[in-house]
Specification:
It is a single chain. By secondary structure, the chain is α/β, with parallel strands linked by helices. It contains 13 helices and ten strands. The protein folds into two domains: 257 residues, Rossmann fold; 113 residues, Rossmann fold (3-Layer(aba) Sandwich), CATH 3.40.50. The protein is 43% helix and 16% strand. The protein is globular and about 60 Å long. It has a six-stranded mixed β-sheet, with helices on both faces.
């Protein structure tokens, strides 16, 4: 198993250019009210503007766009989409760092608000153009994006236009999570005893790309871990379909040799990379503790977020990250032998053979601004 982890790094990760200089992230032990505990991967802290799963999705994707001399990028999302704000900000930042300007064009579902806030305000600050789209046109996202890309090709002389799907769904986006899984399994600052602990990593899910990417990383490296995706934007049928579609797309890229460098290792030495989408991923889809129509608040949601911030110094939002927090608390209560800490810290004192981990997907600060505009009485 350890050889497979090393081989994945050599064959898939170390020769690639990444957006994030280092896959490092902080890990914190959270003690729950029920006197249980889980580990929190604080991915919300890895970047000031677009931390969390957006940064992981763009980690391999943006350097790939720059290497292909793309001049324009078109993508889409809702009014408070963390995806649109992250793509705009990250490409703007990368353009400055690499001295090449890439124009970002956003197709946003809904009408322009009188006072832009949160993720939408940041998107407006960094994007070249923002077009507001009605729901009927937005319903056929693929046709909408293709049409916009064709218009941009005609509008800008000598342009090269790339399309990023809503939520950055796709094989390149999932590479960032494979890089994260490798770091968690191999770094001295990652998860303790990774080869002998059955970690259950909880992640809130919109398109499901983050959960599937993590599960692919776990399967590639043969780790005894399991991913728990909290369904927020669809039913179990939708997420099962997404699992099959995304893993199949990744397997096609993998089998074509697109992601693998020949590092001269024999299969017996761990040189065998395969995911085989016909084999089930180490991934389970679950509902959030209190189900609701996506985007809605329930009584007590905002107060729960405030209490978490006060007690743990962690910022979560009611729509996304609170759902993963609540599921992590619930699952940690079901484990008879929970994480234990010694004075030596995580590396020295973690003793559990099965443990719950929450991956913080970020975006809470800007998401709360948008929610405050929609639900002022809740704040």
């Amino acid at each position: 198993m350890a050889r497979t982890v090393a081989y994945v790094h050599q064959a898939m990760l170390q020769h690639r250019v990444w957006l994030l200089r280092d896959p490092f992230t902080r890990i914190k032990l959270i003690d729950t009210v029920q006197r249980n505990s889980f580990l929190l991967i604080q991915d919300d802290t890895i970047h000031n503007l677009y931390g969390g799963n957006k940064a992981r999705k763009l980690d391999a994707l943006i350097p790939d766009l720059l290497s292909r001399d793309v001049t324009d990028v078109v993508t889409c999302g809702g009014l408070q989409s963390a995806h649109t704000s992250a793509v705009s900000a990250a490409l703007n930042e990368a353009s400055v760092l690499y001295g090449r300007h890439v124009r970002v064009h956003l197709l946003v579902r809904g009408e322009r608000p009188a006072f832009p806030t949160g993720h939408h305000l940041m998107a407006l600050m960094h994007a070249e153009t923002v077009t507001y789209v009605n729901r009927s046109r937005y319903a056929n996202r693929q046709a909408m994006l293709t049409e916009e890309a064709q218009l941009l090709s005609k509008r800008y002389f000598n342009s090269k236009v790339a399309v990023i799907e809503e939520g950055a769904q796709g094989p390149l986006a999932m590479l960032g999570f494979i890089r994260l899984v490798h770091w968690l399994a191999s770094s001295s600052k990652g998860l303790p005893d990774p080869l002998h602990t059955a970690y259950h990593i909880v992640v809130d899910s919109g398109t499901g790309t983050s959960a599937v990417g993590l599960a692919l990383g776990v399967r590639l490296m043969g780790l005894p871990w399991h991913i728990v995706g909290v369904m927020l934007a669809g039913n179990e049928e939708y997420y099962a379909s997404q699992s099959c579609r995304l893993s199949s797309l990744f397997d096609l890229e993998l089998s074509s040799g697109a992601f693998v460098q020949d590092v001269g290792l024999e299969e017996s030495a761990g040189g065998n990379i395969s995911t085989d989408s016909s084999v089930g991923l180490p991934l389970t889809w679950v509902n959030r503790e209190r189900t609701r129509k996506f985007g809605n608040l329930l009584p007590g949601d905002v107060e729960a977020c405030k209490e978490i911030a006060r007690k743990h110094g962690v910022l979560v939002d009611p729509i996304w990250t609170l759902s993963a927090w609540e599921v992590s608390e619930m699952l940690s209560a079901e484990i008879s032998e929970g994480p234990e800490m010694s004075p030596g810290g995580i590396e020295a004192g973690f003793k559990a053979k099965k443990a719950i981990v929450m991956l913080h997907t970020g975006g809470a600060a800007l998401a709360l601004q948008g929610l405050g505009q929609r639900f002022p009485d809740a704040f």
